[in-house]
Amino acid sequence: MARFSFRLQPFLNLKEMMEKNIKNELGIAVQKYQQQLLVLSEIREEIDIQQQEFRKEGISLTTPLKLRQRMEYIKVVQNREKVQIERVNEEKRNVDKIRKRLMETMKEKKILEKLKERQLDEFKKEQEKKQQLLVDEIVSFKETVTPQNEA
């Protein structure tokens, strides 16, 4: 019996390998994104703490110099927050870009898999036809041979 051979199997294998690599790349990008979100969260926490301290010092007897220094520090941390927000957005765009590539690769792989499945079905039908023809041929051969022997 003949074996099924999918002409595009090397291409399908390549797509599967690409999908696996992109999934790994996506995992790394998501980790980086999560790390940047964590850093942003820590910066925001620091801003909240410093603002609370500023309020406390404003109520208590403290020097205007200390209040001004704390306010300057808060501004510096807020600037770090802006920079960090941009990093987070950059990582988010990177994750989205990789996710889009993954979706495209998965679509292409799925198309190839469906094509392979259709060709396999056609191959099986063709093999059934051939086998049925062979059976019909054997039966007709037996029918032609048997009456001659009986006569």
TrEMBL record:
Keywords assigned by UniProt, alphabetized: Bacterial flagellum biogenesis, Bacterial flagellum protein export, Cell membrane, Cell projection, Chemotaxis, Cilium, Coiled coil, Flagellum, Membrane, Protein transport, Transport
One of the GO biological process terms: bacterial-type flagellum-dependent cell motility
Cross-referenced Gene3D superfamilies: 1.10.287.1700
Recorded coiled-coil stretches: 85-129
Membrane topology: Peripheral membrane protein
Pfam families: FliJ
Compartments, record wording: Cell membrane
Domain of life assignment: Bacteria
Example of a GO cellular component annotation carried by this entry: plasma membrane
Family membership: Belongs to the FliJ family.
Name of this protein: Flagellar FliJ protein
Source organism of this protein record: Thermoclostridium stercorarium (strain ATCC 35414 / DSM 8532 / NCIMB 11754)
Gene designation: fliJ
